Amino acid sequence: MPDQKQFTRAEVAARNSKEDAVFVIHNHVYDVTPFLDEHPGGHEVLLRAAGADASEDFDDIGHSLDAKELMKKYQIGEVVPEEHVEVAKREYQWEDVKHESGDGQWLTWRLPLILGVVASLTWLYFQ
Ligand code: HEM
After folding, report:
1. Which of 43, 48, 68, 108 could cross-link 36 (Cys pair, CB 3.0–4.6 Å)?
2. Ligand 1 contact, 61 CB (< 6 A)
3. Domain annotation covers residue 42
4. pLDDT digits (tens, 9 = 90+) for 82-115
5. CA 4 to chain centre
């Protein structure tokens, strides 16, 4: 959205009540006042995040694509460019999956195979 309203982080910090609950997620500003009672995770967590940068908390929950679609409805603008903070998005990439299974795979199927061959050869040897 090109002509979005811009907010400083100080302006957002002042809006931290249940009558006016605003927070920042990845440099976008959200007014979740009308969403407080509808949030599946409860209003307490949203109120705790109000006035602050909730990027990490939001990512940590692993919100669904539906949630990410829904949040667009509550976006009221963005943080002024000079106050942008890049919080690394913690999402699983294919690379992570490959790394995680990398070493483990060897033990998972190659080791039992080798043990099987050794056992068969030993058995044949004693026949
Ligand atoms: C506009 C912003 C937000 C929207 C639209 C949103 C939406 C949702 C939705 C739809 C769910 C149901 C599960 C899912 O579909 O992922 C959910 C769960 C939850 N959300 Fe949010 N959320 C927002 C912000 C936040 C923030 C800032 C926090 C934490 C500070 C938070 C904490 C949680 C928690 C704890 C759950 C429950 C997870 C569970 O039961 O496993 N949410 N949210």
Report:
1. 43
2. yes
3. yes
4. 999 988 776 655 555 555 555 556 667 677 788 8
5. 24
